[in-house]
Design goal:
AAA_dom; 38% helix; seven-stranded mixed sheet; alpha/beta; P-loop_NTPase; AAA family ATPase; Rossmann fold; DNA_Partitioning_ATPase
C-alpha cells in the first residue's frame, strides 16, 4: 500500500508552488513528530532546486540527487529511490529528500524507455502505508519531469495567485493533469485550485479572478484552503527553517493553511 504523495503544480512560476510544497512538508513533519503519520519525504523535480535549497541542501554540492534515479537504466525495479535519499538540514530533521540539481533538466530530452514511470517505481516500497511525500513539480507545460511527477503522485494541489499568472497557470495545469489521468495515472486525484499568496484587504482584481475560478471550476476551486501572504513566509525561506519554528498570528495562520491542505488530501491526522 502506497502512502499519500501530493504534488504541487502550476504551469506558471511565481504563484507559490514551491512555497506550498515546503509548507506541506513542514505540516507533515509536525504530524510525524506527533506520531500521527509515518515518515515524511520531499521530492524536488524542479531543476532550479528551490525546495531542495529551502530544506537546507545545496543543489550545487549534492552527493547524489533525483537525477541519478531518473537517469537510471529502466528495468522496472522498485524502491531505487532509497539509494539517493538525503537527510534534510537539522532544522528540518526527519525529512528525507530526493534533491534536485540543474543536471535534472537533461531528463527532459531523455529518450530512454519508461522514464515517465521511473519516479513512481523508485518510490514504490519506500513511501508506503502511513508515509507522506510532497512532490514539487517544475512550472512548465507537460514535459517528462512533470509527467513523471504526476504519474507518481496520488494527489495534486494547484496553487494559484489571484491574478492572470495564477489563472493561466491553473488552467494549463489542469489540461496537463487531465492528459495524465487519461494515460499514465487514472487514479490521480485533484485536491483543488488553492488561492496562494493571498493579500489581506480588498482587491478588485483578486475578487474578480477568484469569482472567475469559482464559476469556471466549481468545487475544484478551494477558497477554503487559501494560503495568505505574510512576510514571515519569506523570512523562513531565507533562514531555511520550517514555518513551524515561528510564533505569532501570521505563522499560525500559514501553518493552519498548510495543515488544512494535508487534511483535504486525505493525509491521516
Amino acid at each position: 500500500m502506497v502512502g499519500k504523495r501530493v504534488a504541487s503544480y502550476s504551469e506558471k512560476g511565481g504563484v507559490g508552488k514551491s512555497a506550498a510544497a515546503a509548507g506541506m512538508a513542514a505540516a507533515a513533519r509536525q504530524r510525524a513528530l506527533a506520531g500521527k503519520i509515518g515518515s515524511v519525504y520531499a521530492v524536488d523535480l524542479d531543476p532550479r532546486g528551490t525546495l531542495t535549497s529551502e530544506l537546507g541542501l545545496d543543489p550545487e554540492a549534492l552527493p547524489c540527487s533525483l537525477n541519478d534515479l531518473m537517469a537510471a537504466d529502466p528495468k522496472g525495479e522498485k524502491g531505487l529511490a532509497a539509494d539517493v535519499l538525503l537527510e534534510a538540514a537539522e532544522a528540518w530533521s526527519g525529512i528525507r529528500v530526493l534533491a534536485a540539481e540543474r543536471a535534472l533538466a537533461h531528463r527532459e530530452t531523455d529518450q530512454s524507455t519508461g522514464i515517465e514511470f521511473r519516479l513512481r517505481s523508485g518510490l514504490d516500497g519506500v513511501v508506503t502505508d502511513r508515509d507522506f511525500a510532497v512532490i514539487d513539480l517544475p512550472p512548465r507545460a507537460g514535459g517528462k519531469l512533470v509527467v513523471a511527477g504526476l504519474a507518481a503522485a496520488t494527489h495534486v494541489v494547484i496553487p494559484a495567485t489571484l491574478d492572470e499568472d495564477g489563472r493561466i497557470g491553473a488552467r494549463e495545469a489542469l489540461d496537463t493533469i487531465r492528459q495524465v489521468q487519461e494515460t499514465y495515472n487514472p487514479g490521480l486525484h485533484v485536491v483543488g485550485i488553492v488561492p496562494s499568496i493571498v493579500p489581506g484587504g480588498k482587491s478588485t482584481l483578486g475578487d474578480a479572478i477568484g469569482k472567475f475560478l469559482a464559476d469556471t471550476y466549481g468545487p475544484l476551486y478551494r477558497d477554503d484552503l487559501a494560503i495568505p501572504r505574510y512576510s514571515i513566509r519569506q523570512q523562513t525561506r531565507f533562514a531555511k527553517v520550517p514555518i513551524t519554528t515561528q510564533t505569532g498570528k501570521e505563522a499560525t495562520a500559514l501553518m493552519k493553511a498548510y495543515d488544512d491542505i494535508l487534511t483535504a488530501a486525505g493525509v491521516t491526522a
